Amino acid sequence: MGERTTSNGPDERVSGAAYTNLVVATLGFALTFWAWNLIAPLAGEFDKTLHMSSFAQSFLVAVPVIVGSLGRVPVGALTDRYGARLMFPLISALTIVPVLLIIPARDSYGALLAVGFFLGLGGTTFAIGVPLVNSWFPAHKRGLGLGVFGMGMGGVALSGYFTPRLWKHSHDLPFLVMAGALAGYTVLAALLLRDRPDRAVPTASLATRLGRAGRLRVTWELSALYAIGFGGIVAFGVYLPTYLKTWYHLSATDAGTKAAGFALVTVVFRPFGGWLSDRVHPAVVTGWALALTALFAVVQAFDPALDPVGTIAFLLMAAGLGTTSGSVFALVSQVTPVAQVGSVTGIVGAIGGLGGFVPPLVMGAIYSAKGSYSIGFMLLSDLALAGCVYAVGRMRNIRPAAAA
């Protein structure tokens, strides 16, 4: 595979360049994810003019998420070939265009859909940052580095909080502020980001490399685990406010606040999952984190009172899912050939993002049919438990050479 390791053991120190790249990449990840999520917090405001059906509004919100998730596949492969020093500033700069186009497009549903499609670019930067951080950090610090980078997904929560408040001051302000921030970041990234000089550079074509990554069994095993962990985070982010309003009769503000707390816990526990994976095999960390998720999904299936049992159950599920999303990418670095990390990351990230769209549909359908969410939580428990068994029983014994 032409693989080359970039770290030799626990004595290798983390360079200043590694930390610089980590900070700049995490900042870019957060900003582009904020841009990626500009439409969702304002969908209700757009609806005042567009008068969308429930499905039309959901589809509008879903388009950039789907495109951003699927776009990680080619972007990850391109990062393998051209490096993050080129790809991060390029994607950040290109994202400015759809951000600004929201201003003239917001009075037309068709135009907003088209802009939302290109806004999906902002969601692809995950597949740029992972191979960058993976190459700069030695094996004994890689989990923590990837976990810290993963905190950039908090950009979605930042958008949810700040975008509506900027909109209240001026309907153009959220997009002008974000365009300015992305322009500034593009310059910063071009000046400060550096690819590791001895990184493995593949010479095969994009299609060939994606084909090779797709033929690796670990690609799909990691995708399944990430679909449970990160997909669960996405699913709760989308559906938790609805669940809390429907089942516990909370106001929209209270439901949104509790959902934000859930998101905050997942962001905090993502680097914890990476840090722990530097000390314990990431497959074992993944297994225990999914076991925690499975246990408290069962607790919530019995419809406890929200205070305190339900709140505790949700926060511990958030901790389990956040830890899983961090440990799975620590696992990527251990079981994937070095030259294919970007390609594999793209596929795994895409499946994880898409994995968040199935559970809300299932939960909604079950509630419509049965008037209860209990079956949905039991299904989550079964899925998490299956992931736990598979991670511990299979994934801790794989090495990159065997994966290739």
Explain the layout of strands and helices.
Elements: H1 16-36, H2 43-50, H3 54-82, H4 84-105, H5 109-119, H6 126-136, H7 139-150, H8 155-169, H9 173-192, H10 206-215, H11 217-247, H12 252-277, H13 282-301, H14 306-335, H15 341-354, H16 358-370, H17 374-393, H18 400-403
Helix pairs in contact: 1-4, 1-6, 1-7, 1-8, 1-9, 3-4, 3-5, 3-6, 3-15, 4-5, 4-9, 6-7, 6-15, 7-12, 7-14, 11-12, 11-14, 11-15, 11-16, 11-17, 12-13, 12-14, 13-14, 13-17, 16-17
Structure description:
The protein is an all-alpha fold. Helix content is 78%, strand content 0%. It contains 18 helices and no strands. The longest helix has 31 residues, at 217-247. The chain is globular and about 55 Å long.
Q: Helical content, roughly?
A: over 70%
Tally of helical segments: 18
Give the topology string: H per helix, E per strand.
HHHHHHHHHHHHHHHHHH
Distance between the termini: 7 Å
Secondary-structure content class: mainly alpha
What is the overall shape?
globular
**Rg (C-alpha, Å):** 20 Å
Q: Look at the structure and give the mean pLDDT.
A: 85
In the predicted model, the low-confidence regions spanning at least 5 consecutive residues are 1-10, 400-404
